[in-house]
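[Discussion] Sanity-checking designs against the backbone

I'm trying to build intuition for which residues belong where. Below is a structure token string of 196 positions. I'd appreciate it if someone posts a full sequence so I can compare it with mine line by line.
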């Protein structure tokens, strides 16, 4: 499966790292692009250094995932994800900031992540948007509804607790498992309700 993963500047870097690892473990071909703010959040939340340079941040993120990931700069308009003519099975934005959410809902685009999501919608392909903010304004809520009506799946970054999570990793796995489910990828990352 060929998947595009866009990382934007909302809190939730562990979700992005967990999802990336899981996609590679599932044998997916992954194209990755992180916005400027996305890099800052990765650097802050995963490596404790908000000013870590882009290249170093990405190198650390990719350290454990092997070679199936291709990284694209946010202004790489020659990437396959910039066009509907490229064969891509699914697109995921994780985490999705309210800034990117608003841009996607408006149909405008200024980086590869916006463009990839727009391509997914116009081509009728799977788009999973994983927003994070709290509380939510009426504008945020309307933007999510707009995207849902346009065909996106809104997978809000809100882990459940019914699987008796013991660690932060368990909570991350819960969300990653729901994202993999949306992509039709077999996984047993989190216990399923009613199925032990
Ligand atoms: C450490 C950190 C955490 C942030 N958390 C959030 C968040 O949870 N949700 C959100 O919408 N924006 C958050 N922001 C603000 C966004 O990064 C900012 O609006 C940015 O312009 C989004 O750009 P992007 O969508 O291109 O990544 C955060 C910023 C930083 C530096």
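Best answer:
Here's mine. Compare freely.
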């Amino acid at each position: 499966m060929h998947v595009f993963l866009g990382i934007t500047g909302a809190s939730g870097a562990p979700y992005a790292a967990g999802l990336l690892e899981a996609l590679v473990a599932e044998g997916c071909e992954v194209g990755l692009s992180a916005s400027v703010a996305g890099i800052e959040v990765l650097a802050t939340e995963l490596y404790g250094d908000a000013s870590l340079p882009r290249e170093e941040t990405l190198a650390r993120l990719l350290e454990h995932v092997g070679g199936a990931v291709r990284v694209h700069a946010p202004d790489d308009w020659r990437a396959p994800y910039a066009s509907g003519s490229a064969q891509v099975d699914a697109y995921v934005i994780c985490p999705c900031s309210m800034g990117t959410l608003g841009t996607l809902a408006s149909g405008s685009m200024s980086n590869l992540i916006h463009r990839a999501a727009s391509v997914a919608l116009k081509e009728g392909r799977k788009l999973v948007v994983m927003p994070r903010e709290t509380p939510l304004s009426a504008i945020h809520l309307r933007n999510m509804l707009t995207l849902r009506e346009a065909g996106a799946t809104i997978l809000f970054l809100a882990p459940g607790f019914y699987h008796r999570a013991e660690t932060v990793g368990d909570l991350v796995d819960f969300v990653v498992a729901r994202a993999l489910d949306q992509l039709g990828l077999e996984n047993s990352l989190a216990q399923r309700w009613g199925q032990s």
